[in-house]
Amino acid sequence: MIPYPFTYHRPKSLNQAQTLLSREPDAKLLAGGQTLIAAMKLRLANPSALIDIAGLQELSFIRASDSAIMIGAATKHADVANSSDVREKVPALADLAEGIGDPAVRRMGTIGGSLANNDPAADYPAAALGLGATLKTINRSIAADAFFTGMFSTALEQGEIITDVSFPVPKRAGYAKFPNPASRYAMAGVFIADFGHQVRVAVTGAAPCVFRQRDMEVALAKNFSPDAIKPTVISPEGLNSDIHGSAEYRAHLVNVMARRAVNTALEYYSTNAG
Amino acid sequence: MTVVTMTVNGKQRQADIEDRTLLVYFLRENLRLTGTHIGCDTSQCGACVVHVNGRAVKSCTMFAVQASGAEVLTIEGVAVDGKLHPVQEAFRHNHGLQCGFCTPGMIMTAIDMIRRNPNLDRRTIREELEGNICRCTGYHNIVTAIEDASKRVAAGTAA
Predict the structure, then answer these.
(1) Which of B46, B51, B107, B119 is the most exposed place for a label (fewest CB within 10 A)?
(2) What are the chain A neighbours of B65 within 8 Å (beta carbons)?
(3) Over the stretch A164-175, which tens digit does the pLDDT of each residue have?
(4) Hey, what domains does chain A have and what are their CATH numbers?
(5) 10 Å Cβ neighbour count for A86?
(6) Tens-place pLDDT, residues A74-96
(7) Domains of chain B
């Protein structure tokens, strides 16, 4: 499959990328390309130019402090999965990155690309929303709660480039997904983070956009155990229904995945404490 | 059109290509290196896996211009002086193929997998083969071949 023609640019700096992007309104940023190139091959996307930011060193880093992990937008899934800092501070995030696509896709795909694309079934949006991350762009910081605005849409403005994402380090966190057996995209994926004073529950794959499940957050804040959320009923209304599963099926999966995520969080924690 | 230069299997190669040329087409049609296969063309089957700067990637989901200046290794470049790579040797020895269509991608994935995980068990091998599909469903011998190959590579390194 051959995409429509386009012009390729490889800027040497973020500033240069920004300039190119402002000059060509129909240009798109190319990071890992694992979603964009597939869409272009199917001729679902037709950018006039691609601005390749994959090689920009200023966008590729992982920095850890006691309270947060900061990840550059062009950091690849494989590098997040293999980072000892991420593994130590938020093992759920390392495991999430390791569960995206397949090994070859993880070598190319980037965190910034995944977040900017906001695929309804992508994994990273669940981590960003579940951990209450802050997404930084050249001009501003956007809280994850305000970032994901709908199916494939975000609070990013035309020409705005994500530079890095800062994830607060929780007391404990877990992620569980039920992958589509063919694509490995989440049919339902739940990221749960316990910050002591607050629990956040983010659900991906089940609806047109990642969302927080407040009933579970309240129940888990009182009692962080799978039993606490077993009675929580998820309404199928507004959930995705397709050949892979009905809305009712996904509603059921959300509860099952949420309980698995809590168990995973408890396991990481007991292993670390031991 | 853009002049793209990259090192492929140790040799510098150059071609004037359209920016939209996928790496797999550049390898197969411009360089006539047809060992890298196109299976699904949608980044799922892994028949097109090559190494770019030492990392196994799917060449159907990367433009050739993205690999400009890079080191690319394809199945044609893994045997040295007519001597099969230990992974190729292990596939041959264990009959790790039936029709052979997926084999170049399997071998490129296996070489990368073994380099990253010196102690491979069968479960890990199966997980790592997530992105490589064999429609003959000959996975059993492929897994055995990779397990054997990891031992051959370890022995080779030690020697």
Answers:
(1) B119
(2) 8, 10, 52
(3) 999 999 999 999
(4) 7-54 (3.30.43.10), 60-273 (3.30.465.10)
(5) 24
(6) 999 999 999 999 999 999 999 99
(7) 2-77 (3.10.20.30), 86-158 (1.10.150.120)
